[in-house]
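ok so I'm stuck.
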Amino acid sequence: MIVGVLALLGVITLVLSGNSNSTAQPPATTTTTTSRGSAEGALGLDKTTEPSAETKVGTGAFRQQRGMLTIEVTRIEQTGGRISLTVSATNASTARMTLPVTGIAVLDNSNRTYVAASSQWDGLLVQGGKTSGTVTLDEKIPADVTTLTLSFTQISGQFAPTGAAISVTGIPVPR
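replied:
not stuck anymore, here's the structure
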C-alpha cells in the first residue's frame, strides 16, 4: 500500500511540475473509474461486496458553429446508462443570446429523444462571452447507443442562428 501511495505522489508531482514528455493526445479518450461511496472505498480499503457503479468518461472536442454561436461538448460521462455532458457555448456577436435548459434535446443513433433532467447550465450568454456547464439526461440510455446529438432548439437573441437552433452531432458514448 505504501508503494502505491508513493507512486501516486510521484504522478501528482509530475503533473503539477508540467514536465511531461508526452506527445499530442488523441482527440477522444475514455477512462473508467469505480465509485464505492466512501473514503475507504476510494482507497480500496472497503471490504464490502456490494456492486459498484462504474463511470466511463469520454473526452474530446465535438463542436458546431452556426453564425456567431459555437457549441462544444468536451466531456461525456456514463454511469450505469446515465449520461452527463460538459458543454460550452461561445457568443461571438455584439448582442446577448439565451439558450434555455428547456430547449436542450439529445437524440441517440436509434432516434430516441432525451431531455435535460438536471443541469448546471446558465442559459444567458452575454455578447462576446462564453459559458459552460453540465447537462444530465432524463433517462438511462440503452446499451446499444453509440452516438448522441446535442441540440439547442430555443435560442433567442438578435444574432441567434437562423431557425433558432444548433446541433452537435457524432458525440461518442463511452463504453
